[in-house]
Design goal:
The chain has 92 residues and is α+β, with helices and mostly antiparallel strands. Helices cover 27% and strands 38% of the residues. It has a five-stranded mixed β-sheet, with helices on one face.
Length: 92
């Protein structure tokens, strides 16, 4: 099931694994009503796919640049996502 609104894929680089980035992103996404997922990639980045309103995605993207306290975000690549995003936000 794809949520209403647009969907975006973020690739977050830096110190983002092992610092509760995915769990914190999920909490923020749920707070904003954003659906999708976050998962670790083998190269050390975190992939985040999110769908929701433009306002919610904008606020979520700002959060992705900050992350949780222990994270050091160096880069966030953004692209539109045409695939499924699910009915809620999950950590994979």
């Amino acid at each position: 099931m794809t949520a209403p609104g647009r969907a975006v894929r973020y690739l977050v680089a830096g110190r983002v694994q092992g610092v509760f980035y995915r769990a914190s992103a999920a909490a923020e996404a749920r707070r904003l009503g954003v659906r999708g997922w976050a998962k670790n990639l083998p190269d050390g980045r975190v992939e985040v796919v999110a769908s929701g309103s433009d306002d919610a995605l904008s606020e979520f993207a700002e959060w992705l640049w900050r992350g949780p306290r222990a994270a050091i975000v160096e880069r966030v690549d953004v692209e539109l996502w045409a695939g499924e995003t699910g009915a809620e936000f999950e950590v994979r």
